Amino acid sequence: MRASLIQLSVDSSDSADERRRRAASLVRERRGDDLVVLPELWTAGAWAYDGWQRDAEEADGPTAEVMSAAARQAGTWLHAGSIVERDADGTLYNTALLFDRSGDLRGRYRKIHRYGFDTGEATLMGGGDDIVTVPTDFGVIGLAICYDLRFPELFRGLLDAGAELIVVPAAWPAARLTHWQLLTRTRALEEQVFLLACCATGEHAGMRQAGHSMAIDPWGTVLGEAGTAQETLTVDCDMTQVARIRSELPVLRDRVLAIAAPGGR
């Protein structure tokens, strides 16, 4: 399975429409790939809180329309990163969209863990509550977004739901690059899955984004790592490795789920 992570430069110098055109062009260039991945909130800007109400869109809005067409034209599965989604009741969500080779929307995931503590995403957006996996012709994809990486319970949930490959779009801060590199490898290794983590680059709303998109195999080996500029990272993933590594090192079968809390019986 061939996958490409398109590490878009997201800064304040261009509009959402310009980014859509640029992203669609880069996706169309990946004809022959099985999966293409874009970063988190690349249309609105992950750190541009003040513009989220203005730039929010429905799940079938302009970004979905453009990305559906690009997936169909390239003949690839397309993880279109995430958008600021406005629900019918007005609630905003950080929502990932996954399209199949025909351009049909096959997966939608609303980010469960919202970053910001008492500001930004944590106060301006609603949180999702569904674990989302999607079967494809090359394996089962699990969906997560950026800050989710810090919460292993979600990744265990994706594992239990059948995930063989987990895709993580992000706009991770450059100041915490070492955390990004450690957490992506850890999640791949502990769940024995392929992990594709596509991070934005550039500076947006005063925040320098890390870049360094990562592709990691179930052994925790880095198959490829991007730099800090806009680029496309392409890797080949042997999906048979998932079953083989889980068989050769069957740590997952030794999980003990019924551990009592302190003071419990």
From TrEMBL:
The keyword Cytoplasm does not apply. The keyword Hydrolase applies. Residues 1-239 form the CN hydrolase domain. Pfam families: CN_hydrolase. Keywords: Hydrolase. Belongs to the carbon-nitrogen hydrolase superfamily. NIT1/NIT2 family. This is Carbon-nitrogen family hydrolase. It comes from Streptomyces machairae.
